Structure formats: structure tokens, C-alpha cells
Amino acid sequence: MTVILYRDTHKSWEKMRERCHNSNNENFKNYGARGISVDPRWDDFGKFVEDMGLRPTGMTLDRIDNDGPYTKANCRWATSVEQARNKRNSVLLTYRGQTKHIRHWCEELGINYWTARLRRQKGCSVEEILSTENLPTNPPSGSRLARPINTPAGPFESQSAAAKHFGLTRARVSQLVKRGTNGWGRA
């Protein structure tokens, strides 16, 4: 068992170094090219193991701060779920003094993740995004979905209002506005 853990730990160590130091590595653009560095102490595999321990089964090396270096203070062994929630494009929300991934909040509060995402896209506050109450379906004023638009029939207060008037989907209205087709556009 120890041989397998040692081998897996060595693979993680090698891959970390390749991503950060080898410009020919396919992932270099997301690591070394972004300035992600490796603690010089970790040039020695033994020092890496001394700081991190052997890689536990089912876990991979994770940087706590995605913009930070590979160091003892910024690394941990993490599950695939923890890794997925710790990416540059992760949505972190601060609520009740704690910052967590949006999925974590949804699980903790019993909110449908897709409902929370839609509320966020509509420009709702964090309190509204994480509310367990039903909220009005109209987008808040000033949100991307509530901006006035011009149509061949004149101005409308939102894409949704124009879609309803013309019997189109909001997605189709959005396409027409983006393309500026025959009088469609932002007001």
C-alpha cells in the first residue's frame, strides 16, 4: 500500500512541476504562464513529502488560492468535489460573514442550484440569491435582462416584454438585439 501511495504522490509532484516549469506542457498556459510557481524547497521530492505527506487515496494536489504558488501554506490534498469548487471561474458568495462556493450554500440551505444561478444572472443580491422564499420573476431594474430595447414596433422596457409582444422566445429576441437585425437593438 505504501508503494502505491508513494508512486501516486510522486506523480502529483511531477505533474505540478511540469505545469509550472515546462512551457511545452499543455497546461503550462494555466500555471507557469500565469506566474504560478513552486516553492524552491519542493525541488526536492523528499521535502515535498515532508511538507504534504503522502497523497491520500482518491485525492489530488490543490492550491487553496488559485492565484497563489504551490507552497506548504497554500496547498492541500483535496477530493474531486473540492477541486471542482476551487477553480478560477468558481462563484463564491459571502453570506452571513462566510464565503463559500454557490453550490455549497445551495446544499447547506436547501436551495436548487439552478434557481440560485438564475437569480444571480438576473442581478439579485446575495440575500435574494440564497433566499428560500419564492421571489418575483421580473428581473431587477438595471439587470442585463431588464434593459430597454428598440424593435421595429418601437421601444420595449425589456427583452421579455418584446418577446411576449411578438410571440418569440426571449432567447430569439436576444439574438435579434445582438445582431442589430432590422431595427432591433439596445435603447
TrEMBL record:
Organism in which the protein naturally occurs: Methylobacterium terricola
Lineage of the organism: Bacteria, Pseudomonadati, Pseudomonadota, Alphaproteobacteria, Hyphomicrobiales
Name assigned to this protein: Uncharacterized protein
